[in-house]
Amino acid sequence: MYKTTVKLTAHKHLEYANEIGLGSAIVGNVQGQKNFKIAGTLQGNISEAANGQGTLVIDRAGALLGDIKYSNLIVIGRIEGSIEVAGRIEVYPSAVILGNIRYKQINIHPDAKVNGVLSCVDLDVKNAEQADVINLHQNATGT
Questions:
Q1: Which pLDDT band, with edges at 50, 70 and 90, does 121 fall under?
Q2: Residue 12 lies in a domain
Q3: Cα dist. 85→3, 22, 23, 36, 82 in Å?
Q4: Overall number of domains in the chain
């Protein structure tokens, strides 16, 4: 049996405009600007400033107890709350997510734990614009 090792370092090259450091705990809602890293604990909602294109990173020891609205999200730690991501969400093997997720693109790695409803924004738009109705009629012979 071969075991492959996945090296996940997408977040390592990011520079952060804001950070909740390891061992820190914040209670309250936060509005982020650009790339934001949570290595400590945030108990409250986090949203991105208007017209933002940043990435929110929940680091391995990081925990968020609240809702998220951000452009992009990388989850290595724990989230308890709903998530709405306009772009891409990456869920690493150590991640635990308890909440519903709305996304445009998602990548959930093996061993990650996600418990919630996943909904793709692109499919919602397609279904709203193209409501196809198929009528099935039985012919006179019953077939």
A1: confident
A2: no
A3: 32, 24, 26, 14, 10
A4: 1
